[in-house]
Fold these 2 entries.
Entry 1:
Amino acid sequence: MNSDIAAIDNPVAESLLGPHAQLGRRLGQAATYLPGVATFCALPTKPDAADWSDLARLLGSGGFADMFSNPAVPPPDWDPVFELEGRQMIWPAGHPLDVTESIPGAAVVDLGPDDVPEMLDLVARAAPGPFGPRTCELGVYLGIRVQGSLVAMAGERLRPPGWTEISAVCTAPEARGQGHAGRLVLALAERVLSRGERPFLHVADANSGAIALYERLGFETHVAVTFRGYRTP
């Protein structure tokens, strides 16, 4: 298993420079995902004035710069949009997959482009975080259907070398408490581990229920992060 821990220090940049290069656009050391895929932007962890200028040119005047967990602070003429405390959690190296969470229940199914309208509807009701019409192009997305309706999903997002981020974990309000999220996260973790990579994820500190679930499944907190967004001048 080749998973250098340094690769997840700046996961957006590592993803856009590697597996997701075709889903983004770049100018100098600045990069961002294509519209509809994700809003995340990438810069070096210690960008200089030229890097910030390149990102501003990429996004255009008044553009949204979602800096994710990059701690760099932009020039003073960039307007702050949001700031959220959270944590990055990782699957411990060599930790076995505990399938006890995979209790019998509705089948886990692969989701694809034809499922996007339902995925967007579920995101609107469950509010797991940013998710656009092309986000499913970032990796594998799995779902659970009950009587034909999509009630839960989770998928792969950032892909720094040796790692895959699990994201968009959500369950419709009427279907919560039935173990859907745990089954989906474990199913994705199994796929990631089978590729010789390690799963990791990000979660807001205020989401204590999700943190408890991820810890029960086997994830450990790696580092505290602050999610920030800005508007370009």
Entry 2:
Amino acid sequence: MTQVAAPKSARVVVADDQTVVREGIVMLLGLLPGIEVVGAAGDGEEAVALVAGLAPDVVLMDLRMPRCDGVEATRRIRAEHPGTQVVVLTTFADDESLFPALAAGARGYLTKDAGGDEIVRAVHSVLSGDAGLSPGIQRRLLERLSEAERGPAAPSEPPDGLTARETEVLLLIAEGLSNPEIARRLHVSTATVKTHINNLFTKTRLKDRAQAVRYAYAKGLVRPPAG
């Protein structure tokens, strides 16, 4: 009688800067069927390096990490190692976390209150070509689509060749945040923020932050307050 081979386990890397959280996730995944943890990273730079060396099927990616945050790490992994999928596993479910992560190439998005079964489903969903989103995240995406249908169409992609991160920095400038405040918001260094600003100023031929704010409104990236 022919035996049916057991489904192949998904090879997973866990990326989270909090040691206790990271070790807890690794321990939980070790108890789940269909999951094999092959590595654990303490920041985005380490996650990218582990993907290069181990070629995992999926990275479970935290967002707020030092050196290289989860969004930038996701972008690099998807660009350099397209065979590896990314599922975000984070505390944050706000738009400022969700949409940049999805735009960077994450195929799944879970919050850290997700149960083990939900994590397994998300991992195997992204490997089969589907999205691995929690029900709450799916609702938020539907709400955002509904809001977009009611409002004026937003640019389909950042103008003037800006990257998603440079656009994010531009929007924070438009909010009136200083470089140190932007660095804290994005969990990156002030030097990294300055680099992004120099790049976006060069691409858009802007000279100062006041011009950057006007540019953001003119391009429809920011809407004037109602009233």
